Fold each of these.
Amino acid sequence: MIIILYNNFIIHKTQFGYTHNVDSVEKIIKIEQLLNSIHIDDIHEFGNRSYYPQILRAIYSVNLKTWNCKNNLNCQKFSCTDECFMETALGSNINAVTRALKLPRETIRRKTNELIDEKLVIRTEKGLFVTQKYRINSYKKSILFNEKLSNLNIK
């Protein structure tokens, strides 16, 4: 018997073919269900406003690259003021989001302007930043996601 680890699946090669470790398959199913719940939550929150969640995540991931504010408990929960957040966060831009999502620049520009109108993104001379409104919601979702992931006992 040969044991192969492929994409975190443990696969046993027997003389009759390949079989998957049942525990790994069950974990993959639970992970897929968890990811589906994220997508469903995005649809529930943003409805038919396509690309909003992806653009927000792309901007936020750039913002967090240099963000390092630990002034108070609010900062630790990502709910500090927008001004406080922007002091150390790295500003994103339309080109970075376009490259990250591989979508047309004009689509990203138009959707980003809509997100600015919705008060989810701020544009300054330093770049694009997600607002406190988005950060608080994202923080709450991250806590729930972490709890659900911990319940899967994935190592």
Note: Confidence is low (pLDDT under 50) at residues 1-13.
Amino acid sequence: MKEETKTFVIMVKINGQEAIALLDSGCTMEAISPEMVQIVGLKVHQLTEQIPIQLGTKGSKSQINHGMKACIKIGTVENYHYFNVINIDRYDIIIGMVFMKQHGIVLDFEKDQVRMRGKNLYALHKSTDKYLQVCRQAMQHGKTSQNKKVTLDETK
């Protein structure tokens, strides 16, 4: 993978379940995939008003229809946080700037490190065994869950 295309990815826990999290310095919200909601068995709430998602490309549109709260654990920090439920590709959750600022998460692009309150967090890289293991587990889960598609409304 080219240096300029690397992302900051870490393992977190959502209600005790390991999850792959993308740390996104250009995102102003936190999001969770419907698949992760299903895996963990979280209760989602339909929003009374749909919220448009503003993406960085012209003409791209999506909307947020559901949200939920979950316990997230990163390093030594564990607390309940609100997540928008949206379709996410390749990751279980996205952690945006709001959460990162609240919890002192720093993305050091020069050193290719993630720090939280001054302590390094273990960042996943596509070549690491842990990353590959988690991806394989996700693919296996995907094969078993393809037989039964669950909509967000069914998880209430």
Note: Residues 75 and 121 are 7 Å apart (CA to CA).
Amino acid sequence: MIFAGVFRSGTSVTNNQEHGILVVEDDPAIRRLVSMVLQRQGYRIDSAADGLEAVRKLGLGEYDVIVLDLMMPNLDGFTFLNTFAEQEPDRLRKVIVTSAASPAVIRERMKGTPFSLLPKPFDIGELVERVRSCIEAQIA
């Protein structure tokens, strides 16, 4: 199982630094921006340039949230999410998907998977709020 045990359990933590976020984005500028903004919010950030790198990092660390682009080389976000849905379906609530693809197309391809969708271009403040909500939902 690629994703077994890669997320934290829903323990209550008040310090953002104790929350890990994996940013998976092939565009270096977007990856740096998202990482920098979330780091300034106090989160512990790790990043990956594609799905394969993300899988490797998931094997080495625990993350409270994954911010995932869909259109990437090597292992795209759709394949990543499909594998994830098969192996850790309850954990999809910890995934925030960013994509320039049509939301209707994404929902159609990913029927029944409960991830959060944030279409590109997105408001960085909205992303920060989605990350915060995702973490708070795990604590509740």
Note: The CA atoms of residues 11 and 67 lie 20 Å apart.
